[in-house]
Amino acid sequence: MTAPKRPRIRTLEELRPLVKEGRYRLGSHAAKHAACEGFSEQDIVTAILYGRELMRYVQDERLLAIGYICPSPAVRIPLHVVLEYKKPRWVDIVTAFIPAEPHRVVSRARLAECLRHDRHMTRSSWHGPRAAPLVPPRAELSR
User: Which of 15, 52, 120, 127 has the largest CB neighbor count within 10 A?
Assistant: First the structure.
């Protein structure tokens, strides 16, 4: 009989170089929240690179990080990002969302509920031409 596999414990500091190198996958749930809540993939990456770790979910080989979206020098919007590190030398960005209570740690039960693609789906609608980009590139925002 073999012993059960022990989950690896990794920190946000260990995962940052992988994200800097582009060794990450943006999950569909994170992309959905980004589209609905108005932040971009670059905002998620910035939150990982400059944020801090809130909690580790050791059994799931995941961690919760908090970073900030800074649309202007006076405004900081908190952004929670859940990272999975089961694959060696790779990071999966499971989900990212703007929390209602930014510094409250999300329990495993709440995280599981979020990952079931939300019990009540966020509604969104298109305004303008369908070919328009969902989120303008950063260069356009600084004008």
Answer: 15
